[in-house]
Amino acid sequence: MSAVAAAARALVGAPFRLHGRDAAGGLDCVGVVALALQGGGHRVVVPSGYALRGGDPASVIARIDAVLARAAADAPGDIVLTTTGPGQLHLAVRVAGGFVHADAGLRRVVMRPGEPPWPLLAAWAT
Question: Which end of the chain is less crowded, N or C, counting CB atoms within 10 A of the terminal residue's CB?
Protein backbone atom coordinates (compact mmCIF):
# COMPACT_ATOMS: atom_id res chain seq x y z
CA MET A 1 0.00 0.00 0.00
CA SER A 2 1.30 3.46 -0.78
CA ALA A 3 2.17 5.68 2.19
CA VAL A 4 -0.23 8.35 0.87
CA ALA A 5 -3.10 5.85 0.64
CA ALA A 6 -2.33 4.53 4.14
CA ALA A 7 -2.26 8.06 5.55
CA ALA A 8 -5.60 8.82 3.87
CA ARG A 9 -7.21 5.66 5.26
CA ALA A 10 -6.04 6.64 8.74
CA LEU A 11 -8.13 9.83 8.45
CA VAL A 12 -11.44 7.98 7.95
CA GLY A 13 -13.86 8.99 10.67
CA ALA A 14 -12.38 12.45 11.24
CA PRO A 15 -15.06 15.16 11.38
CA PHE A 16 -15.74 17.48 8.44
CA ARG A 17 -14.86 21.15 8.79
CA LEU A 18 -14.43 23.65 5.95
CA HIS A 19 -10.76 24.76 5.90
CA GLY A 20 -10.03 22.08 8.52
CA ARG A 21 -6.41 21.02 8.66
CA ASP A 22 -6.18 18.53 11.54
CA ALA A 23 -7.98 15.24 12.06
CA ALA A 24 -9.11 16.04 15.61
CA GLY A 25 -10.64 19.41 14.76
CA GLY A 26 -11.97 18.46 11.34
CA LEU A 27 -10.94 18.29 7.69
CA ASP A 28 -12.25 19.33 4.33
CA CYS A 29 -11.12 17.69 1.08
CA VAL A 30 -8.04 19.91 0.83
CA GLY A 31 -7.10 19.01 4.41
CA VAL A 32 -7.50 15.28 3.69
CA VAL A 33 -5.23 15.48 0.66
CA ALA A 34 -2.68 17.67 2.47
CA LEU A 35 -2.41 15.31 5.45
CA ALA A 36 -2.29 12.24 3.21
CA LEU A 37 0.52 13.78 1.17
CA GLN A 38 2.39 14.78 4.32
CA GLY A 39 1.97 11.22 5.63
CA GLY A 40 3.54 10.04 2.40
CA GLY A 41 6.57 12.28 2.90
CA HIS A 42 5.53 15.16 0.63
CA ARG A 43 5.93 18.79 1.63
CA VAL A 44 2.82 20.74 0.71
CA VAL A 45 1.67 24.34 0.85
CA VAL A 46 -2.01 24.27 1.69
CA PRO A 47 -4.31 27.01 0.39
CA SER A 48 -6.91 28.62 2.60
CA GLY A 49 -9.68 31.17 2.30
CA TYR A 50 -11.47 29.47 -0.57
CA ALA A 51 -15.26 29.11 -0.78
CA LEU A 52 -17.07 25.78 -0.58
CA ARG A 53 -18.32 26.44 -4.11
CA GLY A 54 -16.54 28.22 -6.89
CA GLY A 55 -12.97 28.27 -8.01
CA ASP A 56 -11.32 27.96 -11.35
CA PRO A 57 -10.52 24.34 -12.27
CA ALA A 58 -7.66 25.39 -14.55
CA SER A 59 -5.89 27.30 -11.77
CA VAL A 60 -6.34 24.45 -9.28
CA ILE A 61 -4.99 21.97 -11.83
CA ALA A 62 -2.02 24.25 -12.58
CA ARG A 63 -1.18 24.57 -8.85
CA ILE A 64 -1.16 20.80 -8.40
CA ASP A 65 0.68 20.22 -11.71
CA ALA A 66 3.47 22.40 -10.30
CA VAL A 67 4.17 19.89 -7.51
CA LEU A 68 2.90 16.48 -8.69
CA ALA A 69 3.11 14.54 -11.96
CA ARG A 70 -0.09 13.51 -13.69
CA ALA A 71 -1.17 9.93 -13.00
CA ALA A 72 -0.81 7.54 -15.92
CA ALA A 73 -3.08 4.91 -14.34
CA ASP A 74 -5.47 4.58 -11.42
CA ALA A 75 -3.29 3.61 -8.44
CA PRO A 76 -3.66 3.80 -4.66
CA GLY A 77 -2.26 7.09 -3.42
CA ASP A 78 -3.26 9.04 -6.54
CA ILE A 79 -4.86 12.41 -5.91
CA VAL A 80 -7.99 13.10 -7.94
CA LEU A 81 -9.81 16.34 -8.69
CA THR A 82 -13.49 16.04 -9.51
CA THR A 83 -16.45 18.33 -9.86
CA THR A 84 -19.31 17.29 -7.59
CA GLY A 85 -21.77 19.91 -8.79
CA PRO A 86 -21.97 23.24 -10.56
CA GLY A 87 -18.96 25.26 -9.48
CA GLN A 88 -17.92 22.74 -6.84
CA LEU A 89 -14.44 21.22 -7.05
CA HIS A 90 -13.52 18.27 -4.85
CA LEU A 91 -10.28 16.43 -4.05
CA ALA A 92 -9.93 12.80 -2.98
CA VAL A 93 -7.25 10.14 -2.51
CA ARG A 94 -7.47 6.80 -4.30
CA VAL A 95 -7.07 3.77 -2.04
CA ALA A 96 -7.35 0.06 -2.80
CA GLY A 97 -11.00 -0.58 -3.64
CA GLY A 98 -12.16 3.04 -3.60
CA PHE A 99 -11.28 6.52 -2.45
CA VAL A 100 -11.06 8.61 0.73
CA HIS A 101 -12.64 12.05 0.85
CA ALA A 102 -14.23 14.57 3.19
CA ASP A 103 -17.99 14.21 2.84
CA ALA A 104 -19.72 17.46 3.80
CA GLY A 105 -23.15 15.77 3.78
CA LEU A 106 -22.08 13.00 6.15
CA ARG A 107 -19.99 15.50 8.14
CA ARG A 108 -16.90 13.25 8.23
CA VAL A 109 -14.06 11.74 6.24
CA VAL A 110 -15.15 8.50 4.60
CA MET A 111 -13.81 5.72 2.41
CA ARG A 112 -16.18 5.16 -0.48
CA PRO A 113 -15.88 1.97 -2.54
CA GLY A 114 -15.45 2.02 -6.29
CA GLU A 115 -14.70 4.96 -8.52
CA PRO A 116 -15.74 8.53 -7.68
CA PRO A 117 -19.25 9.08 -9.07
CA TRP A 118 -18.40 12.60 -10.22
CA PRO A 119 -16.70 13.79 -13.40
CA LEU A 120 -12.92 13.45 -13.11
CA LEU A 121 -11.00 16.59 -14.05
CA ALA A 122 -7.44 15.40 -13.38
CA ALA A 123 -5.39 12.90 -11.39
CA TRP A 124 -1.84 12.98 -10.03
CA ALA A 125 0.54 10.22 -8.96
CA THR A 126 2.23 10.35 -5.59
Answer: N
pLDDT: is 25 or 52 the higher one?
25
Candidates 106, 107, 81; CA nearest to 93 is 81
Assess contact for 80 and 116: CB atoms under 8 A. yes
Amino acid letter, residue 117: P
> Distance between CA atoms of 70 and 78, rounded to whole angstroms?
9
Q: What percentage of the chain exceeds 90 in pLDDT?
A: 83
Task: Lowest mean pLDDT of 3-17, 54-68, 92-106, 112-126, name the range.
Answer: 54-68
- Residue 2 · residue 40 · CB < 8 Å: yes
Strand 120-124: give its sheet, edge to edge.
Answer: 108-113, 98-103, 88-95, 79-85, 120-124
